[in-house]
Write a structure and sequence with these properties.
The chain is an all-beta fold. It has strands at residues 7-11, 16-18, 22-26, 29-35, 40-42, 48-55, 61-63, 66-71, 75-83, 86-91, 97-99, 107-113.
């Protein structure tokens, strides 16, 4: 079984996610370059976030940094993180975490992400 490996990065300058970028090493740091089709320019991108390999109930790809609603007995809003070699959900109100694969059979729906919807983390 193969898994599709994809990344995205937050472009704070344009306030959008970039999925087409190049990573370059400059000395001891990494820079992330995007091509604006006119001039190649360096734009400092935020955290690189990996695709979990899963989609929500609407077919939208779930990445690290997304906030998902778990439809169980009660609605739980959780942030997707990568920790200790696996994707996990951190329940926002309680701070509890569970392995992401525990929720595969449940209905997940993306309701935002940590950049465009920081108010969801409160």
């Amino acid at each position: 079984m193969s898994r599709e490996i994809k990344f995205r990065a937050w472009n704070g300058w344009l306030e959008k996610f970039e999925k087409d970028f190049e990573i370059r090493r400059e000395g001891d740091r990494l820079t992330f370059w995007i091509d604006d089709n006119e001039n190649e320019e360096c734009v400092q991108l935020g955290d690189i976030q990996q695709f979990t390999g899963l989609k929500d109930k609407n077919g939208v790809e779930i990445y690290e940094g997304d906030v998902v609603r778990i439809n169980s007995d009660s609605f739980l809003d959780s942030k997707v993180i990568f920790e200790h070699g696996c994707f996990k959900l951190i329940e926002i109100r309680l701070g509890d975490s569970e392995a992401f694969n525990h929720f595969r059979e449940r209905q997940l729906r993306i309701i935002g992400n940590i950049y465009e919807n920081p108010e969801l983390l409160k």
